[in-house]
Design goal:
It is built from 12 helices and 19 strands. By secondary structure, the chain is α/β, with parallel strands linked by helices. The strands form 4 sheets. Strands 5-4-13-14-15-12-16-19 form an 8-stranded mixed beta sheet, with helices on both faces. It has a 6-stranded mixed beta sheet with strand order 7-2-1-11-18-17, sandwiched between helices. GO terms for molecular function: FAD binding; oxidoreductase activity. This is FAD protein. InterPro entries: FAD-bd, FAD/NAD-bd_sf, PheA/TfdB_FAD_monoxygenase.
């Protein structure tokens, strides 16, 4: 079998590695000259950690990253509202929540892909069209010289992000159902000693205008600070306003000389899901298929679980253990079902919790925070909370159950 994967982000690279480990030939294409280095996600829930294990890279991820400890929701002055102790469950879970910035994960995944003879990498290949017939699928790309190139395979998978050309070719330029939040998130990477102010590894600050997330993302003191900003501001205005936001929001009210800022990346946030994640021999996964806001890390985890499940489907097809039509329909139904029933509502609640909740009454009025507080003295409730928080059960069930049951894998 030969699978063409469009998009060399983390999901495309992970899918390539899993398929290549099963001796499936992969052509991995990307419109850019190399992997993306912008400040983006960094946290991998247990269901995503399981997929990194499938790809054969978990040992390297754990070597370069770390497992966070406590997670706290706070008022804007830093006062703790409620804390989830040992949020990674690292003491008793081999698939514990793991942290590694996406740009570092990308470099690690790329090295593995470059070393695998089953994976052919094609940079500066912008997909302009896709097609299929009863026995094959193909993409048409425009290379750096401007020439059109046709690449043929058995299946095509779009992992090419929120502006996916594969999705647009299937459903049209404007057809991506859902909504765009009236919010602009600014992701920054910054060296600043939050720990000196009593901040934990992960912190969510609840405030109507100055809400933000501050999380340690490396062992040498780099933090991710993602905050809300006025949607009317341009990129230049966002950058110019950043020092004032930090001085007002962060503990210690720092001035620019008090921290080292590496990146500033503003973006709009969405809750959207494609009409289908499979049309014949062409599939969608990760951000090409669905989007959610970044609070809680469900977009990245959901995308990795997409490709983990899709890889199982394609491997089963290659080994003639399942019917292609049946199993790809299951992939489509299960993964879109997970988005609509789990990822969308939970990630939406995560965002509203920090941006539209009164911090003075948050524990009393927010069911999840109330559960976190009660779980401190209730081991059974804590186990239930861990399953929800880490998505061990919710994101991984469905395809795996099918393989064990009616699918015959």
């Amino acid at each position: 079998m030969h699978v063409i994967i469009v998009g060399a982000g983390p999901s495309g690279l992970v899918l390539s590695l899993i398929l290549a480990r099963a001796s499936i030939q992969v052509t991995l294409l990307d419109s850019e000259a190399t992997i993306d280095s912008r400040p983006r996600a960094a946290h991998y829930a247990p269901s995503a950690v399981r997929v990194l294990q499938q790809a054969g890279v978990l040992a390297d991820v754990r070597r370069d990253g770390f497992m966070p400890q406590d997670m706290t929701w706070r008022k804007i002055d830093g006062t703790p509202i409620v804390t989830l102790k040992d949020c990674s469950q690292s003491r008793h879970n081999p698939e514990a929540l793991t942290v590694l910035p996406l740009n570092l994960l990308g470099k690690l995944l790329l090295k593995h892909a470059e070393d695998n003879p089953k994976i052919e990498l094609g940079w500066n290949q912008r997909v302009v069209d896709i097609g299929q017939d009863a026995g094959r699928a193909w993409v048409v790309t425009r290379d750096q010289a401007g020439d059109l190139v046709e690449i043929w395979g058995d299946y095509v998978v779009g992992c090419d992000g929120a502006n996916s050309q594969v999705r647009k070719s299937l459903f049209g330029e404007k057809n991506f159902p859902g909504k765009t939040w009236h919010a602009q998130i600014v992701a920054t990477n910054v060296y600043y000693p939050f720990e000196k102010f009593g901040y934990d590894d992960i912190n969510f600050i609840i405030h109507p205008t100055d809400y933000y997330m501050a999380a340690r993302i490396t062992t040498d003191g780099l933090w991710r600070v993602s905050y809300g900003e006025d949607t009317t501001l341009t990129l230049d205005e966002v950058i110019a306003h950043q020092p004032a936001k930090f001085a007002r929001m962060l503990p210690g009210h720092p001035q620019p000389t008090d921290y080292r800022l590496l990146n500033v990346g503003p973006y709009r946030i969405h809750q959207r899901c494609a009409d289908a994640m499979r049309v014949g021999r062409i599939c969608l996964a990760a951000d090409a298929a669905h989007l959610c806001n970044p609070f809680g890390g469900m977009g990245l985890t959901g995308g990795l679980v997409d490709v983990g499940g899709l890889a199982e489907c394609l491997i089963g097809i290659a080994e003639q253990r399942v019917d292609a039509e049946v199993i790809l329909n299951v992939y489509d139904r299960v993964r879109r079902g997970v988005y609509h029933t789990i990822i969308d509502p939970i990630s939406s609640s995560n965002f509203l919790r920090v941006s539209a909740t009164d911090p003075e009454t948050a524990v009393e009025k927010d069911e999840y925070l109330a559960m976190v507080k009660r779980a401190g003295d209730d081991e059974g409730l804590r186990k239930e909370l861990d399953d929800v928080s880490s998505l061990i059960v919710l994101l991984s069930r469905g395809l795996r159950d099918f393989f064990k049951g009616e699918g015959g894998l």
